[in-house]
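Attaching the record inline, Q. Sequence:
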Amino acid sequence: MQIISEIDELVKLISKLPGLGPKSARRIVLKLINNREELVKPLAKTLAEVYKNISRCKICGIFKSSTIECNFDDCKIVNTKYNKICVVEDIADQWSIENSNIFQGYFHILGGTISSAGKKKDNLLINSLVERVKKNKIEEIILATSATVEGQTTAFYIQDSLVDVDVKITKLAQGLPVGGEIENLDDGTLISAFKNRLKLSTESN
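Structure, as predicted:
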């Protein structure tokens, strides 16, 4: 009975992962159980190490290891190699854009969006974005948030936060479908959205 309970709990946990339901979770659990030495032991060890050592940088939002400082140029921009920052909602969006090879510059991962009800502003790395722009020679901010209500609300809030900062602000344009999320777009759509990005006004009312 104890074994069944543990299996059920594992199925419930795995079924919470994106794209997986109870049936897929059960198949995965059976595969793991039937390959304990090859899969379960190294998986358990790696998950424990990730839980212990991996976190998000509080400045740029990129994953970093707790054993070293954030080693990405995105964090402190010590060499001003680029003059652009692409602002995305999460790590998956960054990976999608990097894989398309359309953008050469720094990334800033917000860690989510502002809901249409105006919640979660304090949980996002918006203040650190403003500080990065002020302290470094950044000429353009590209708002690569999703074309959802939450994504656009977040983009408008960031635009307002930078109203007194001398920086060009653009957003992804043609090719980005309404309601589309960045991580689900193909490379061709991303390339079109970047090439045709629109400049936003930063003038205060």
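The mean pLDDT is 80. The radius of gyration is 20 Å.

More tomorrow.
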